[in-house]
Amino acid sequence: MSSSSPPAGAASAAISAAEKVDGFTRKSVRKAQRQKRSQGSSQFRSQGSQPELHPLPQLKDATSNEQQELFCQKLQQCCILFDFMDSVSDLKSKEIKRATLNELVEYVSTNRGVIVESAYSDIVKMISANIFRTLPPSDNPDFDPEEDEPTLEASWPHIQLVYEFFLRFLESPDFQPSIAKRYIDQKFVQQLLELFDSEDPRERDFLKTVLHRIYGKFLGLRAFIRKQINNIFLRFIYETEHFNGVAELLEILGSIINGFALPLKAEHKQFLMKVLIPMHTAKGLALFHAQLAYCVVQFLEKDTTLTEPVIRGLLKFWPKTCSQKEVMFLGEIEEILDVIEPTQFKKIEEPLFKQISKCVSSSHFQVAERALYFWNNEYILSLIEENIDKILPIMFGSLYKISKEHWNPTIVALVYNVLKTLMEMNGKLFDDLTSSYKAERQREKKKELEREELWKKLEELKLKKALEKQNSAYNMHSILSNTNDE
Amino acid sequence: MAGAAGPGTGPGTGPGAAGGDGDDSLYPIAVLIDELRNEDVQLRLNSIKKLSTIALALGVERTRTELLPFLTDTIYDEDEVLLALAEQLGNFTGLVGGPDFAHCLLPPLESLATVEETVVRDKAVESLRQISQEHTSVALEAHFVPLVKRLASGDWFTSRTSACGLFSVCYPRASNAVKAEIRQHFRSLCSDDTPMVRRAAASKLGEFAKVLELDSVKSEIVPLFTNLASDEQDSVRLLAVEACVSIAQLLSQEDLEALVMPILRQAAEDKSWRVRYMVADKFSELQKAVGPKITQNDLIPAFQNLLKDCEAEVRAAAAHKVKELCENLPIEGRETIIMNQILPYIKELVSDTNQHVKSALASVIMGLSTILGKENTIEHLLPLFLAQLKDECPEVRLNIISNLDCVNEVIGIRQLSQSLLPAIVELAEDAKWRVRLAIIEYMPLLAGQLGVEFFDEKLNSLCMAWLVDHVYAIREAATNNLMKLVQKFGTEWAQNTIVPKVLVMANDPNYLHRMTTLFCINALSEACGQEITTKQMLPIVLKMAGDQVANVRFNVAKSLQKIGPILDTDALQEEVKPVLQKLGQDEDMDVKYFAQEAMSVVAQRLRKLDLPVKDSDEPSAPGADKNHFLRPRGPGEDAGKVSRDRAARVASEAAVEAAQLGVGTQPRSGPAYQLCVNPRETLAHLEIVGLVHFSQSRD
Question: Where do the HEAT repeat units fall (chain B) (predicted)?
């Protein structure tokens, strides 16, 4: 698996020249050097040589009596796995299996009445044998999904067809969940979910559709699937911070949440508050934020009373140092405000606008800009206008300050517009705040001094007590030693 | 859930009001409450971190009756604040009145042990474990055990996870009836349906087994272990491997064979590479725990499989353990086992396709020579070493070279020197400066083992070439290397081989090389002693005081300060002082600064030696500083900036130097120069070496 395949001549010359200079190769250079790699599945362990496959007759040439038998034989033949890391071994057998898989896909999608009860077991066995495997260790331990090329599954030429077959099977009009549930059970689903960690986006895409179909057709598995996704997410948030398929699982959840019956069960609310909201803390939020925000908004559209806890939750996890995430949070808040009810808005306006006021005065202009864009949103503007008496005092200080101090002229221009809008909403209050601004600042400074003073006193008190204690301990000691002397 | 902490500062409860007048003892709790409700997280965090101050001020009684209930009831805060709180409470026993009252601390810690954030929970558990030791046996059963039970049967997985870490601390001191209950709770957590809880239980299984009675270990722990080791999730199974080490230590050989080994064998062949990796990673511990007989029958074959595992991660982990495994074999028969059962597999790994595997092996393989003795080493290991010395991956070669001392003891290094040399030369010229740096660091060791002749003949030129490397870190390491070599080979050698070459560089057209001479002198003067320093080095340093580049001049000042203690007073008085005085009048601000600093040090030394020093020409250090700051400043400069700039300039000097390679250019310490203190910019410079010309002058 060594990636030391010699790079193209020109590139290598450029790199070594760069390396001569500093020894730090830039990421882009390193990447150019590395070829697209693929990854074998850890499942394939050298078990000696594979039996050679012999082509079976075509299904379409068989009589209808033989067809069923032949179908099962072909399924069994496809259970044999090949090593795709070795690109020269078993070429003939690999080709036979590929052709057979293609034929099977075609067979189940064009013929009716071929998915009979007796075939289910072989079908599921074939699927399991091919797709269920321990995912191999990542080649690139500091894999950055945003920057790096994913490692692709080496055996994709076969696996793709197996997934294809699986989907056609699930979607076939002949497919009967009542029979399939004997084979597609909790254990099956559990293994399927683990595959979502695959680094290969093509595989995750198939898995997404497959899981969606299973969730739709197997009512008995729904609660289980939700719970397992729950566990995967919790593990992702609190234990490993690594799982490749978060976005795909969230996408499925988006449609699941859409279908929740009202009133929402406690289980679902708990999922929102204890899983989805903490998920915002993840390092790689950018990779799945769109899907996550969609899920959150789905919940709020179902049940508006969740608005307050959700916004308070987001405020709790508000990014402290990552401006990129802060911009995402602001985007999500705007999505929520788009659907918020005015009564709910009143409940959270104070903490929310305190945060927005901080964002507006962020020295990172993208954060400030994103927050100021709220004032371009008609609905949000109407909410602000309704509650201007509350919001203006919260926002005024920051806006006033940045209108004078921000380094970025665009931001200053935006702030002037916002101040103008706010002034038009309540001119009187605006004037009052302007005139009391200085006094307010001074009061804050004074408070600051008082705090310091108090802590100092407290420290002194501590010292005094410690001294007393020491003295009394000393006295005790001397008393004791006196008694001993006697 | 969140948030109550934020907004609540009502009017009138300002700290002023709380602390105002009269009763001093009244305000701490008010201050705390006020601070804990502050909108600024940092202030809330500060007050939590000073919790012990507050508790001390309150006294034990009020801490118990007011502070703790307040903490338990009102804190729903940011995780960072909670973490600080969890940590503080672990050391609070004294502040609530000693062991008799330790249980008062349980309620706040209990709620902290149920929060979602892992770090907070873990810290709370850690504090609870600490406090459990301070409980009396009665209090433990009355308060602590019930808490563990509550956590163990909590609704949300977090509390059950936390409970797992508390069983082992309360079990040993509990009564038999309670013990049975504790075991029951632990059992149910081991089969919890949340994998997070099973993982927590599996990771504490070994620890819990250690405090159990042997019968219970056999009747209860082993079945739990068996179940966890065959869990459907590999993340649980791999933790069972860790537990295996502790459990194996407790059981007799027969029990081991019957109860544990089947599971361990299964783990070594698990279908998940993570589990197999864990077995490889814990191999030495397992080996010690199961004893020599089972090792020979079971572990060695398992180890062979791990060494040829299909995943490189597993092979690398196993390769790391080769030496330890061999060392821990019973001496009798050890050689045969290694030669017949281990070595063939090692030979394969030398040409593995994965460089991590090879480099893991290279880092331990040399250790085998002491175990196998001279003849085997020469016959079997040497070819492997030689192959690895030629490996395409520099890390492999480096790992071999860095462990040469092991081989040296057994067969002497001469056997290797023929192959060693090309390997060293290649590493010395590697394109990656980190590789060059690594090999430099082994030079003194190599020099010691190869001897002075071999060194002079083959390696000396390399060492000198590093002095003019284009990366500062390499030049710096090369300088230190010279010093260590002189310590090894003595001053005479230095005088003949090193010093002349170093001094020649003082005339180099590249000012960086001229500065390297100064750095070498700084490093070598002490090792070389007074005579060489005074006679050979000092004249060169003094001559360089007239260099056209300011950077060289202020380094002259620094060098003079450095070698001052080695020189005798005549030289100081007659030669050094005048030069420093002249530099003290330099037009460049920094040269002036360092000259004055050096002057004060030299003057101090002269005064110590009771030589009369006229007050007028003894600028004291603060005086020098003052002069420095009082110079007329350009627009926009402030005193602070100047000193900051200087600090930054000096600090980044090293890095910036690496950036400036332009031979013959005259780098001036102009404003542009002072700007390059940002490390990122420095890196940028590194990449455009040769393009940077600092030709502006300050005025």
Answer: 28-66, 105-143, 182-220, 221-259, 260-298, 299-336, 342-380, 381-419, 420-458, 498-536, 537-575, 576-611
